[in-house]
Specification:
By secondary structure, the protein is mainly alpha-helical. It has a single domain, classed as MetI-like fold. It contains 15 helices and no strands. Helix 3 packs across helix 14 and helix 5 crosses helix 8. The radius of gyration is 24 Å and the shape is globular.
């Protein structure tokens, strides 16, 4: 029996409130800055209450009429590039990982264990380690400044393959035998049995991989030189140039706020599935 102690409960809640305030205060400052003019933001002290230029700043950011010293590419275009990139990476990772895990668990072929460990070892080779040869290949194939160049090098996922493999190993063999007795082939078994059983794991990985794809910075920074192909994370960097007086910080902060919205919306909408996919033990 867990003993409830009011003082400990109050202390725990106080610590959580302080933690939320510490995390939320920079976000609040960014939002406040996005509602003022650039001149107001540079005042000392900076205003701590929202201003009256929210609509003007966000429209200027979305349409690319900021007028700062850095890039003035339309944020609406950047958000579209980021959305397409994140979705392609997410669905690509999940699809390839499901099929590769299915092959590793349910097919018998020579060197099956070797191929699994070869996939697993790639966890030690992130994009940062192989970025030079990857850039060379993408450049030679003419894939720079394209959606293919932004997504294809990031699609393979050893982590997702490992997670799906571990889940498939928990599926009772009786289901496979029953499917065989009913005349179902491998892909029918995969589509009608394994996929429905994997939906919570797929949902959890969707959230993780979407945020991963949306927040990509280093690879898009190298693979894109055209403003029309900047993801929003790279676009924020390109908007900052020169000294403080040369940047429209209100537009930069408005862009940062908008860049945080899609991942936050995905987490909120899929929170129940995300948690269930991580902790569900009813396999």
């Amino acid at each position: 029996m867990v003993e409830r102690r009011p003082l400990l409960d109050m202390l725990a809640h106080a610590i959580m409130v302080v933690g939320v305030l510490i995390v939320a205060f920079p976000l609040y400052l960014a939002f406040v800055a996005s509602t003022h003019t650039a001149r107001d933001i540079l005042q000392v002290p900076m205003p701590l209450l929202p201003g009256s230029h929210l609509w003007d700043n966000y429209v200027a950011a979305l349409t690319g009429h900021g007028g700062g010293a850095g890039s003035n590419a339309p944020v609406a275009r950047m958000m579209w590039v980021s959305l397409v990139t994140a979705l392609v990476i997410t669905f690509g990772k999940i699809s390839i990982s499901l099929l590769s895990a299915f092959a590793l668990v349910y097919f018998r072929f020579p060197l099956r264990g070797f191929f699994f460990w070869a996939i697993f070892v790639t966890l030690m080779l992130p994009v940062e380690v192989r970025i030079s040869p990857t850039y060379k290949v993408v450049s030679d194939l003419g894939m720079l400044n394209s959606y293919a160049g932004l997504t294809v090098p990031l699609i393979a996922s050893a982590t997702a393959t490992f997670l799906f493999r571990q889940f498939f190993l928990t599926v009772p063999d009786e289901l496979l035998e029953a499917a065989r007795m009913d005349g179902a082939g491998p892909m029918r078994f995969f589509k009608d049995i394994l996929l429905p059983l994997s939906k919570t794991s797929i949902a959890a990985l969707f959230v993780i991989q979407f945020i991963y794809g949306w927040n990509q910075y280093l690879w898009p920074l190298l693979a894109t030189t055209s403003e029309s192909m900047y993801p929003v994370v790279v676009g924020i960097k390109m908007m900052v140039a020169g000294g403080d007086s040369g940047n429209e910080w209100n537009i930069v902060m408005a862009t940062a706020i908008m860049a945080m919205l899609p991942p936050a919306i995905v987490v909120v909408l899929m929170q129940r599935w995300f948690i269930k996919g991580l902790v569900d033990t009813e396999k």
